[in-house]
Amino acid sequence: MDSEELTLVKIGGSVITDKSKPLSLRFNCLNNLSSALARYEGRLVLVHGGGSYAHPIAKKYGLKIEPAKVEPKGVTLTRLGVFTLHNEVVLSLLRAGIPVYSIHPHHILYKECINVLNEALSCNLTPITYGDVIPSKEGCFVISGDMLMRLLAEYLKPRKVVFIIDVDGLYDTDPKSGRLLKEISLTWRTEHNAGVEFDVTGGILGKVREAQKIASLGSDVYFVNGLYPERVLKVLRGEETISTMVSGRVRS
Ligand SMILES: Nc1ncnc2c1ncn2[C@@H]1O[C@H](COP(=O)(O)OP(=O)(O)O)[C@@H](O)[C@H]1O
Ligand SMILES: [Mg+2]
Predict the structure, then answer these.
(1) Which tens digit of pLDDT belongs to each residue from 135-181?
(2) What are the backbone dihedrals phi and psi of residue 83, each rounded to the nearest 5 degrees, phi first?
(3) Ligand 1 mutation target, pool 166, 196, 223, most atoms within 8 A of CB
(4) All domains of the chain, ordered by start, with CATH?
């Protein structure tokens, strides 16, 4: 599979769940998004976040992106939330016409996962993985969907990488009072990090950092609002729409 033809897409937990209520699915948003993704003609590799199915439980039990000794029950409960949401995402994508192949995020830590990704693609399956909790000698840690995006981008070198979030793109300060940025550089930093009290994986700061690393590898990276699925489809098709781009390519 020519990886240039692949597009790597993260479905943000903030779009498909209601962050103000634990374990709450935004059913219509998810289905509309699935339909938009199904209308895209190209090949996709998908990642989704945990939103309100994972972050509140992870936070309660002290899970973070750094390994920590936590109550084991907290790991099981967080993963139960992750799997519950994952099933909803898989069902929604299938109903829309995207048969997916779930790949445990553990595999994505190793470059060999590229084999199963390619084999799934060759069987006309769309690979999908998700933010999760991983055990290690030092304790358990959360692997964010954003970090999985970076690892997958390193292996697959896709032409385009899309982060679907619940706002119109990246803002110079914050989405409420700031200005939407059409493009950011590889070194741009936001001062603002709203949502970090909810998000155990670093909120927008961590996401932007991963996106810039991906762009520096040569992929064109976009942030687009998943509450407007037609914008997502336009970004995928390379048409003009409201979004923020992180450019990694030197253009002539
Ligand atoms: N400067 C900014 N630009 C865009 N979004 C921002 C900014 N600062 C904070 N945010 C918040 O970041 C959130 C997206 O990050 P996050 O919730 O981690 O997404 P995900 O759904 O992928 O986990 C948005 O809901 C937005 O309110
Ligand atoms: Mg997040």
Answers:
(1) 999 999 999 999 999 999 999 999 999 999 999 999 998 899 999 99
(2) -65, -35
(3) 166
(4) 3-246 (3.40.1160.10)
